[in-house]
Design brief:
Layout (H helix, E strand, L loop, with lengths): L7 H6 L10 E5 L3 E2 L3 H11 L4 E6 L1 E2 L2 H5 L4 E3 L2 E6 L2 E6 L2 H8 L3 E5 L5 H12 L3 E6 L10 H11 L4 E4 L2 H9 L7 E3 L6 H6 L1 H14 L6 E6 L9 H10 L6 E6 L5 H11 L4 E3 L7 H8 L2 E4 L6 H7 L4 E5 L15 E4 L3 H13 L1 H18 L2 H30 L1
Parallel strand pairs: 1-3, 1-8, 2-4, 3-5, 8-9, 9-10, 10-11, 12-13, 12-15, 13-14, 15-16, 16-17
Antiparallel strand pairs: 6-7
Length: 407
């Protein structure tokens, strides 16, 4: 987090040339991460001569990536006390919106994020259309009536809503948000890279196998940040039984995180010869490890690693949990699910996948088809672009009416 916040004047001064003749679409993110850049690049490309895109937030990417993208603007997050609780917001954002009057304000919609409450109110006051963007993941039926009431008030602040999948749309409906204003932009990664460079990525995967002495082995892969909700420890617990399924089976963990050292120690105590930790890998090697794996297991907190695995056609097993990311995998059709935390069910799922290679091949082919049908980056961007244009039209109507009322 930066030591100080730039003023709205300072931020505007860094924004470069702004085409005043084009509608302005401003997107506010809690963090601008590297994996999301292909999405913003495509939207900025499609926006040309129709609207101007600007993405604000902490830029958690390399300086070189920032320099070549005019639409990125650094806006650090800051914390403050609100009703006795520490909350996070974009300092200076509200003032910038009031002064510069963008046509559309897109806000990451999180009840726990103060900026998600304040910016929609400011934007509506200047006649801008407000678009919420979120996985949602509220599990509305499992929250208290107080929480549901709070969330109903919160989501009413948005004119349109971009969500990540059917699960998200269902949760929004349960919270009373009008279905006619919900747009699904299925969350995904840069699928073009997988489909266009599959052979190159696979060759790099074979090189990684050779470097790690895994040629001829069966790689059971778990990839992702090592945090409690990811439940990598379940695989180490299950390894006593998993290792008996095939003498060539090895367990490979890719990634780092707060639990890395503890998991590494547990693996060394369990089976240092057949459990491998790569740590953090260079950009692109995450794709290569997936491409060269024989079976991918995601034991908790399903995220975009699932999209990668399915797009590569890898037989994939996930913990059965709700969410827009996990909904891509349909049990028995393009992958398998097991009850989250059930070690014996996890072992049984792996045993089934290894013992039925024909079914695994069929499942892998269906996984590729599912991503191509529902979760390509082109589909995600198309929905977002169409929603932004819809919001621009709404803003024009709103400001036109306000102008005539004031005449």
């Amino acid at each position: 987090m930066a030591d100080h916040a730039a003023t709205s004047d300072e931020l505007r001064a860094t924004m470069g040339a702004v085409d005043a003749d084009l509608p302005q679409v401003w997107v506010f993110q809690p963090a601008v991460k590297h994996y999301r850049l292909p999405v913003w690049d495509l939207i900025a490309e499609q926006a040309a001569r129709r609207y101007q895109l600007t993405v604000f937030g902490p830029l958690e990417i390399d300086h070189a990536d920032i320099e070549q993208r005019h639409y990125l603007q650094a806006m650090p997050l800051h914390k403050r006390l609100f009703m006795g609780r520490e909350v996070t917001h974009w300092r200076g954002a509200a003032k910038m919106v009031r002064q510069s009057r963008p046509d559309v304000v897109v806000v990451t919609a999180s009840v726990a994020f103060l900026g998600s409450w304040t910016l929609p109110r400011v934007a509506r006051r200047i006649g801008a259309a407000v678009v919420g963007w979120s996985k949602v993941n509220n599990r509305a039926g499992h929250t208290s009536w107080v929480e549901r009431r709070l969330k109903r008030r919160f989501f009413r602040r948005f004119d349109l809503f971009l969500c990540y999948g059917e699960c998200s749309r269902s949760e929004l409906r349960e919270l009373g948000y009008p279905e006619s204003r919900i747009r699904i932009a299925q969350n995904t990664i840069d699928t073009r890279r997988i489909f266009d460079e599959r052979e190159i990525i696979a060759a790099r995967g074979e090189q990684l196998r050779q470097e790690q002495g895994l040629t001829g082995k069966k790689v059971l892969l778990c990839i992702g940040r090592m945090a409690p909700q990811k439940r990598q420890a379940d695989l180490i617990t299950a390894w006593h039984d998993l290792r008996t399924l095939d003498p060539d089976l090895v367990l490979v963990f890719v990634g780092r995180g707060e639990l890395y050292e503890g998991l590494l120690q547990a693996a060394e105590e369990t089976d240092p010869d057949r459990i491998l930790f790569t740590g953090a890998v260079p950009e692109g090697d995450d794709y290569a490890w997936i491409a060269t794996s024989d079976l991918v297991v995601i034991p908790g907190a399903v995220g975009l690693a699932l999209n990668q695995s399915l797009a590569f056609g890898r037989p994939t097993i996930i913990a059965d949990e709700p969410g827009a990311d996990a909904e891509l995998l349909r049990h028995g059709e393009n992958g398998w699910r097991y009850p989250r935390g059930d070690i014996q069910a996890l072992v049984a799922a792996v045993r089934h996948a290894l013992a039925n290679p024909a079914e695994a091949a069929r499942v892998g082919a269906a996984a590729v088809a599912a991503v191509q049908d529902k979760a390509t980056i082109e589909r995600m961007v198309e929905t977002m672009d169409r929603t932004f244009m819809e919001a621009i039209h709404l803003s024009k109507k709103r400001r036109h009416k306000a102008k005539h009322r004031g005449a």
